[in-house]
Amino acid sequence: MMPSELAMLLPQYRCERVVRAAAIRDFNRDVLIPEYNDLIVDIGNNGIVNFLRYSVPPIMFAKYKPTIGDFLVVHEDGECEIVEKLAFVCNYRLV
Question: What are the extents of the domains in the chain?
């Protein structure tokens, strides 16, 4: 799944710009593509839980090793990043 396809499934949040984001609920190692890691994210809205498995390259963990509760953020240009939970909830608001 491409970041643009993922973005369409995620709720929108606003900080300085509008982004799409989901809370990380779990991690799995991808057995088919070992160099990738799977993030299990909650794409639910309004209290409805809906989990999605999304594979990310290890480079995403180079700056910061995410923990459960952090957020996968997809920007308008398709760039993905992991944002620490506290930073996310303090700076982003659901659109």
Answer: 3-94
Q: For residue 30, what is the DSSP state?
A: -
Rounded distance between C-alpha atoms, residue 59 and residue 73, angstroms: 15
How confident is the model at residue 48, as a pLDDT? 65
CA-based radius of gyration for the chain:
12
Taken as a whole, the chain contains a residue count of 95
Domain 3-94 classification at class level: mainly beta
Going by C-beta distance under 8 Å and a sequence separation of 6 or more, which residues neighbour residue 89?
A: none
Q: State the pTM of this model.
A: 0.77
More confident residue, 4 or 87: 87
The mean pLDDT value for 86-91 works out to 94
Measured between alpha carbons, how far is residue 41 from residues 16, 64, 66 in Å? 23, 17, 12
Q: Are 67 and 75 within 8 A, CB to CB?
A: no
Mean pLDDT over the full length of the chain: 81
